[in-house]
Design brief:
With 281 residues, the chain is an alpha/beta fold. It is built from 11 helices and 9 strands.
């Protein structure tokens, strides 16, 4: 298995469906309530778009299919394969950002090539600048997807933090490998402090600040009736910008504000406090 594919596979959490049970039921209940808010006859199905749903471990498709005609839109090929034989789910394999595996592989290759050419010790600043240059060479390919299907109800859960997350993840791997090989001069600072204060992470933040308001605009425009967002609270990049945009520009549309703790990875004791917004058109 090549390095990129092993990185992608590392995002999949063992026992996710079992461990996400409570969060999945909470989101599903909200979508059932959204259906009821639309005040349609019990026999009529509404169109539901799950933006960035992947394998949909955080939603109960079996419950939802009784109320909705379901479309999932995601860049995840494993999701496409998973739903291939389920004729009650239409899966659209497409990126929201205009970039995908080719760009991530290109970024990874540049970073790996840089790391392999290191002779002797190297400063963190040199790695940082190289990463910024590498992402800037790809930046002009980032574009908003205006082909999001129209639907009655749309849910976008845990997506904002993932739009550009592959870049920081690769950056972190390179830093750790250089450090473990004794090649990184990190001075007196911890790798975490260097990572969080890096020019590269500042660049990713600016990408989110520029892209996410347009992303929210397109997502909300696609929903005819209701739009449900779930975003990590705290300092999670992407979710920060998504939450700020909703609070500042769509406050009058927000009819429900909710929160819920998501047991994201019990093995690593990783729990996300999620901020949930239901918007009415």
């Amino acid at each position: 298995m090549d390095l990129y594919r092993s990185i992608v596979n590392s995002f999949y959490i063992e026992n996710a469906y079992q461990e996400w049970k409570d969060y999945r039921e909470h989101l599903t209940d909200l979508l059932i309530k959204a259906y009821e808010r639309c005040e349609v006859s019990a026999e009529k199905k509404l169109q539901l778009l799950i933006a960035g749903g992947g394998l949909c471990n955080d939603m109960d498709i079996e419950r939802l299919k009784e109320k909705y005609s379901i479309t999932v839109m995601d860049i995840d090929e494993n999701g496409k394969k998973y739903f291939n034989d389920k004729n009650y789910v239409n899966y659209i394999l497409q990126s929201f950002t205009g970039i995908g595996e080719n760009e991530y592989r290109e970024f990874l290759e540049k970073m790996v090539t840089f790391a392999r050419n290191v002779k002797g010790r190297i400063t963190f600043e040199e790695v940082d600048i190289n990463a910024v240059n590498a992402i800037e060479e790809i930046e002009d390919r980032i574009s908003i997807n205006n082909d999001i299907p129209r639907c009655d109800v749309l849910i976008c859960a845990g997506v904002h933090s993932q739009l550009f997350s592959m870049f920081p993840y690769i950056f972190e791997i390179i830093i750790e490998n250089l450090y473990n090989a004794g090649l990184l001069d990190n001075g007196s600072k911890s790798l975490e402090d260097l990572y969080l204060s890096s020019k590269f992470m500042e660049k990713v933040k600016r990408l989110n600040q520029k892209f996410i308001p347009e992303f929210n605009k397109c997502i909300i425009a696609a929903a005819k009736k209701l739009c449900l967002f779930s975003l990590e609270s705290g300092g999670v990049e992407g979710a920060i910008e998504g939450r700020i945009d909703l609070e500042e520009n769509y406050k009058e549309k927000i009819i429900i504000k909710d929160s819920y703790d998501w047991n994201f990875n019990l093995k690593e004791n990783k729990i996300y406090h999620m901020d949930i917004y239901l918007l009415q058109k």
